[in-house]
Amino acid sequence: MKFMKLGSRPDTFYTSEDSRCVSSEVSSDFTIQVSGSKYLLHKFPLLSKCLRLQRMCSESPESIIQLPEFPGGVEAFELCAKFCYGITITISAYNMVAARCAVEYLQMAEEVEKGNLVYKLEIFLNSCILNGWRDSIVTLQTTKAFPLWSEDLAITSRCIEAIASKVLSHPSKVSLSHSHSRRVRDDDMSSNRAGASSRGWWAEDIAELGIDLYWRTMIASKSGGKVPASVISDALRVYASKWLPTLKRNRKLVGKKADSDSDSDTDSSSKHRLLLESIISLLPAEKGAVSCSFLLKLLKATNI
Fold first, then answer.
1. Residue-wise pLDDT tens digits, 87-101
2. Which Pfam families does this UniProt record tie to the protein (predicted)?
3. Pick the CATH number of 3-127 from 3.40.50.2000, 3.30.710.10, 3.40.50.300, 3.30.70.1120
4. CB neighbours of 50 closer than 8 A, spacing ≥ 6?
5. Residue 150 has pLDDT above 70, yes or no
6. Which of 141, 166, 237, 300 shows its CA 20 to 30 Å from the CA of 157?
7. How far apart, in Å, are the Cα atoms of 304 and each of 220, 269, 282?
């Protein structure tokens, strides 16, 4: 997994009673409330990089700035604040989306200061994370926590396009994590059908996605018409095998509950139906592309 370190100063944030503070010879002159947490900070480092905070300070005489619905919560805010102070921060696929949404909220753009955090995150996202297979999938998964922000910033679509562009490649030509590269290599060596195996090497990885993101990723992968129908079918079989048994088990558990849990039963049924409908809509139309056993499994699942 790729990561980026920014800043060089040691971490001087600390907790004092009910507040987060920065160790400094200069007294705090700026109080920010984020999701119930209070930060005692300094105006200069933050206002010099955050246009939103500049405007809020100029428009309101209040001594405390309220940021109640901050994307990413206190962790994302503190990461941005540390960047403003020059304190070392680490960005990876796991916190990229939260950080990118947070800096957009704070308006930490180039117009405010050259080399600001929006610019640095975009460079890292486009040149590193989206070039990596595992990084792209992890980043796409984390967009679920920030659906509207991720769509507006085109993070979701960029991740999907990056993943779709790699499914036609042999795994040896894709930037994989070390452990994943070794697993793919071992699978190819142990398979009697190494050629076929390498064509669908990606199926298990994208099967980790929820059905909405999986559906969009598969549509993007199919759109070029270059992925063989049999490979698409195999990938759908992997996904169905992973998720259909889980939903079936959940439905049985829900069915044993009292009538007061009817809402949960309805929700489980809706998820089951959505999963089936999405998988069926992705089935290739080519004759013989889908095995009879897989079709029978889907038919059986519709009757649960």
1. 999 999 999 999 999
2. NPH3
3. 3.30.710.10
4. 80, 84, 106, 107, 108, 112
5. yes
6. 237
7. 30, 9, 21
Residues 6+ apart with CB under 8 A from 65: 30, 31, 32, 33, 53, 56, 57
The tokens for 120 are 């640095």
Q: Give the residue with greater pLDDT, 209 vs 62.
A: 209
- The label of the residue with tokens 């076929």 reads 196
| Residues 53 and 59 sit within 8 Å (Cβ to Cβ) | no
Question: Residues of 56-91 as b/e, b for ≥16 C-beta within 10 angstroms?
Answer: bbeeeeeeebebeebbbbbebbbbbbbbbbebebeb
Boundaries of every domain in the chain:
3-127, 228-304
The two beta strands, 3-6 and 19-22, are: unpaired
> Which pTM was predicted?
0.87
